[in-house]
Amino acid sequence: MNNSIQKRLLITTTCVLALFLTITGWVLDRSFSTSVVAGAEEQLRLVIYSLMGSVQERDGRLSFTQGVAEPRLTQPDSGLYARVANEMDQDIWTSPSAVTSGVTFPQVDASPGLFVFSQVDAPVQRFHLSYAVIWEDVDTERVVFSVATDQQPFRIAINQFRRSLGIGLGAATLLFIVAELLALRWGLLPLRTMAQEVKELESGERETLSAAYPDELVGLAQNLDRFVAHEQRSRSRYRNALDDLAHSLKTPLAVVRNSLLDTGVDKTLVAEQLERMETSVTHQLTKASAAGPVVVGKQVNVATLIERLLRALQTAYVERGIDVQLNLDKRAVMRGDERDFMEILGNLLENAFKYTRGKVRVSAQSVDAGGRIRTHIGIEDDGDGIPEAMRRDVLHRGKRLDEFESGQGIGLAVVAELVELYKGQLQISDSELGGALLTVTLP
Amino acid sequence: MRTLIVEDEASLRDQLAQHLKAEGFAVDCAADGEEGLYFGREYDYDAAVIDLGLPKIDGIELIARLRSEERAFPILVLTARGHWQDKVNGLEAGADDYLAKPFQMEELLARLNALIRRSAGYASPVLSQGELQLDTAKKEVRVTGTPVELTAYEYKVLEYLMLNPNRVVSKSELTDHLYEQDFDRDSNVIEVFVGRLRKKIAPVDLIRTVRGQGYRFVTDAVA
């Protein structure tokens, strides 16, 4: 649905951010409100203490003849009110502020020594704190000190806090989103660069990707480079093979055409030239159609492939009754194009079947050579072996492949070429069976 | 021997047919897979040569379908690309041997003859039964080591009988497998050939007449 990495990241992080900020805001708001209310309670408590300090006792009665220490209690509408009552809820004393504002105090059944705090919402929002004491030598059992304060100033503080919190968090959100956009642009820049560079690769403006990619993309960039290089190599291989093919066909064609001018066609000559053309076609086409080491290499199981080829060859060579000894590591693998390996092993196995007197031995194993898997395949027979001259021709490429006569030589030459394409090694030696031992080592 | 050639390239098909006929084969030609399948189903062949790249039905599929219908005659596949993938696919589909184009006619004939021999259970190109030896490569027959002069038709009859030993071969089967055109089935041409053949390979006496059914070539073990 949404195919931009930037959008995906932005949507998820913004959602997480929104949730985070909501929770943060809520927690901060709660803590602040709680602390404001606690502050109000504390203030009221101090007022009660001050009231208790200002009270005078004479003849068993309490009075505030010397006034009270808290000036707001004597100012009308100061927002701070107090009352001292007996256990019957009868006034002993009411602050002038309460009298002028007509503040009523709820009756509180406070146990002596305990502060009772409450919030009242009607008629006016107020905080109330009551404290009951047992006063010795006074004719009432209990004296209840009650103080009240308007909530409004506190509410204003809370609202102000909320406003600043909102502004703060909003600003943080905006800042975060901007920062994130910048981070995404910066973070995704290599991808955009890569897209641009790939476009340039396509249009031929550049040949490889630039080297400066972050760690996460280095692998991808390298693989792309290898892919492109592989494609270029294949293309040039096709072109070379076609050029070579055209070249190697034209000479024999000219020879044959000219021979038509002679009286009586020289059949040997024509046959020779045809043979040359045939060899060229086989060799050049095999070379051109080889996939070569692939970038996204498939693993080919060697044992499975060899067994498949052997089944096919045994069908074709059934009457020879060839005894095949197998020593195959079931886990041996090769990385690359299966058809190439089929060509390599098919040619080698067919040669062994052609030239054996009856015994063929095939072995394969993969070994771990310092982190890199190398696969060794040995194919041997009890035939006459491969003459020294042909070994040299095949392995040292002194001879052009077109010059091989059909038969063992051309097949081997094709194998040598394919193995080289895979940066592997082909060795020809003598088998203890008496014939040739061909060893292929592939990385 | 009756052979089926399935090859879409007309010139190669004609060349193959011509050479096989020259070698004494009776030949049917098909130009595509569908036609090949029709022939393969309708007639009994001693061998078939099938090209892998065919129109309508691909060579591999043609072979697989013939085999799934229990047509057991040996099949030689021709591959133009010469890739091992093609060879292996052909053999896995049920072919018995492969030959990459371009090939030499002698090679094809040798392979085809070998396939026919192989399917009859002979390992060597010289079919040998007691004192009687038939060399399929040289087209030569010897009795107790002495060459015997046979006409082309006599040779074909003997070869066919030796390749189908211990089995009653009817006169019409012989006609079908040995002759291009339909003979007049009622004629006694076959009887005449077999009669002459028996005399020429005497004292070997392995061709038995099964009254009202045909002939049976008996091997030593059975005789």
Q: Which sequence of strands runs across the widest sheet of chain A?
A: 4-3-7-6-5
Strand content of chain B: 15-25%
Mean pLDDT of chain A: 84
Query: What number of structural domains do the residues of chain A give?
Result: 3
Tell me about the largest β-sheet of chain A: 5 strands, antiparallel
Sheet/helix structural class of chain A: alpha+beta
Here the CATH topology of the largest domain in chain B equals Rossmann fold
Oligomer designation? heterodimer
CATH architecture of the largest domain in chain A: 2-Layer Sandwich
The radius of gyration over CA of chain A amounts to 50 Å
CATH class of the largest domain in chain B: Alpha Beta
Characterization of the model:
Chain A is of the alpha+beta class and 443 residues long. Chain A folds into three domains: 5-156, Beta-Lactamase, CATH 3.30.450; 215-273; 293-442, Heat Shock Protein 90 (2-Layer Sandwich), CATH 3.30.565.10. Helices cover 52% and strands 20% of the residues of chain A. Chain A has helices at residues 5-54, 96-101, 152-203, 215-259, 267-289, 302-316, 338-355, 388-396, 408-421, and strands at 56-58, 61-63, 80-86, 91-94, 115-120, 126-133, 143-150, 298-301, 323-328, 333-336, 359-369, 372-381, 425-430, 436-442. Chain A has a five-stranded antiparallel sheet with strand order 4-3-7-6-5. The mean pLDDT of chain A is 84. Chain B starts with a strand and ends in a 6-residue tail after the last strand. In chain B, α2 (33-42) packs parallel to α3 and α6 (152-163) crosses α8. Chain B is α/β, with parallel strands linked by helices and 223 residues long. Chain B is 41% helix and 22% strand. The model of chain B has no long low-confidence stretch (mean pLDDT 86). Chain B has two domains: 2-120, Response regulator (Rossmann fold, 3-Layer(aba) Sandwich); 126-217, Orthogonal Bundle (Arc Repressor Mutant, subunit A). Chain B has eight helices and twelve strands. Chains A and B meet through α5, α6 and α7 of A and α4 and β5 of B.
